[in-house]
Amino acid sequence: MPIKPAITATRLTKKFGDFVAVNQLSFEIGQGEIFGFLGPNGSGKSTTIRMLCGILSPSHGSGMVLGHPLDQVDAIKLSLGYMSQKFSLYDDLTVRENLNFYSAVYGVHPQLWKKRYPELIAMAELSGLENTRVQAIPGGWRQRLALAAAMVHNPPLLFLDEATSGVDPESRRNFWELLYSFAAQGITIIVTTHFMDEAEHCNRILFIKDGYRIGYGTPDELKEKTHCATMEEVFVQLASEEEPQK
User: Fold this and answer.
1) What share of the chain has pLDDT > 90, as a percent?
2) Which of the listed residues 41, 82, 108, 191 has the most CB atoms within 10 Å of its CB?
3) Which one-letter DSSP state was computed for residue 3?
4) Residue 199 vs residues 23, 54, 205: alpha-carbon distances, Å
5) Residue 217: which of 227, 208, 207, 209 has the closest Cα?
């Protein structure tokens, strides 16, 4: 039985003046899939994510997010969680205060929040740190708290924009274990990263360079197509090809 798409994009394009940041990207993401946008810094990954989140309007092309066209911004925003590299946490607030703040932002009903809050603390393994100011928490725990903040309203779709940058390898591994558990629950996860080793963790991958799609498929499909052993080698080969894929 085919997997129902959570996101579709058709020739998605974003221009800033004469600069084309994203150039005619087409792809599909299935529900419950961990999907990776990979490429170097400045390749168009974050711009693509921001269009899908409703933060930026496409210059051309079209897309659907959980059954909503991209111009239905309010409906899309209510259905997703977003976590960026900067984490968007308030350093002078405690763990509890940060989560309470985001629950209010997302409009979580107080009765639901009583049940949801301990679930998030357990998920992020932050028990005992609830009354600690964020500025005093190490990077790996801050990352987990930021993920919990993005999940306060239990969204079916999670965008992670360079969310694993700036943390140690062990924290990155632990973070991916959490993502596996979310995907197993049917949550769709879209990851942007420039760490090529993280591509192996994704069900499918879209490689981007200079706003163009240069590769699309599962890790095994891409390695077989390019006759490469690692995703790092795959990207190097795809990036060296003169003509981008449309």
Assistant:
1) 65
2) 191
3) P
4) 22, 25, 7
5) 207
Domain that holds residue 135: 5-28+37-63+77-228
Is pLDDT at 1 greater than 50 in this prediction? no
Position 234 in a domain:
no
Give bridge partners of residue 192 from the DSSP assignment.
37, 161
Angle between helices 95-105 and 139-150 (to 10 degrees): 20
Q: Two tokens at 150?
A: 């993005």
> CA-CA distances (angstroms) from residue 21 to 60, 196, 205?
12, 21, 19
Provide the edge-to-edge strand list for the sheet that holds 68-69.
Answer: 19-30, 5-16, 60-65, 68-69
142 DSSP 8-state letter: H
Q: In whole angstroms, how far apart are CA 37 and each of 28, 108, 129, 217?
A: 12, 30, 33, 11
Beta-strand relationship, 60-65 and 5-16:
antiparallel
- Enter the pTM of the model: 0.88
CA distance 161 to 100: 23
CB 162 within 8 A of CB 115: no
How many domains does the chain contain in total? 1
Over residues 138-192, the pLDDT tens digits come to 878 888 899 999 999 999 999 988 787 766 778 788 888 889 999 999 999 999 8
DSSP 195: -
Q: In this structure, what CATH number is given to the domain that contains residue 126?
A: 3.40.50.300
Average pLDDT, the chain: 89
pLDDT, position 52: 93
pLDDT value for 128:
94
User: Per the structure block, which two tokens stand in for 27?
Assistant: 């792809």
Over residues 100-124, mean pLDDT: 94
